[in-house]
Amino acid sequence: MDLRLRTISREEHLAYVDSLPSASHMQVPSWGDVKPDWRAESLGWIDGAGRITGTALVLYRPLPKIKRYLAYLPEGPVIDWYDDDLDRWLDPLLEHLKGQGAFTVKMGPPVVARRWDAATVKEAIADPGAHRLGEVPPTEQDPRAHALTDRLRSLGWQRSGGDGEDGFAAGQPRYVFQLPLAGRSPDDLLAGFNQLWRRNVKKAEKAGVKVVQGDYADLDTFYALYTETAERDRFIPRPLAYFQRMWKALTAEHPDRMRLYLAAHDGEVLAAATMLTVGGHVWYSYGASTGRRREVQPNNAIQWQMIRDAHAMGAHVYDFRGTTDTLDESNHLLGLLRFKVGTGGQAAEYVGEWDYPLNKVLHKAFSLYMARR
What we know:
35% of the residues lie in helices and 26% in strands. It is an alpha+beta fold.
């Protein structure tokens, strides 16, 4: 059965997302408000009965001086990716976006291809012969994901950056780390932590670290820690206005869409983190901490509180977001992977982001520009 694609209202879009177990936080209408440099559009696939059966948040980024756009669907669209007739979803999407002046379409199917449990990741880190997680045999793999990538290639889509890209390339992360919560009690979750994690949680409790939820006014405190973290970990920080805009946009859509957590010891905030929620999926979004008083383990304390709160909200997964797939001891990102592995969760690999060049000349020029940035 053919599907019809049309622009839908924010209310229609949100109602459809709310009817699902979960969807990416980058595929809700309010995410468009977080990105003012992009023009946002909500799209819906309509079946023969007039019902919305899939949605997409499209972000359009204009090329300088000409009215042509990169059309980006981060971690979307929200469709039936396992439909044997994928053309009926993607063909009308490409036709619509071409009509909007897009020269390239970039999307990120929210489909997990492979998973590695914590024990497998730990063994891989310890193995001097293992260089990338993607080269390690997975604990689980979904043959439907492999079939999907073959189908996308046959339809003319190209994997962004090639197949060798690690989890921290441009765009959304291909590798993430997730902690399953469904069917587990908080005691089960704590028991699944490794010995170091359990010990650090207890240290924080014994030291009197207090974790509380903050509000808009506390973003200044978060940001001071965030810029310190950026300098320490060698990344370029986003401006404070970005987080202020995110808070206003997301909480206006749903009061629990975004939360801010602060971990304090003796009256000083030592760590802070943001948490995002859509349905049963909770993400640890941004984290920040000072180098002072690290012995009281504020980072473990804040994560444990967020995990417990996610569980109490009925979430089925706590998502630590991106991780690297490198296992190289010299890479400073390996410490972040070790920290996440200590929770006993799973590393997961998505099928990655995919491009469809609607104008090959502009697509090639844009790709060269991005590669030189």
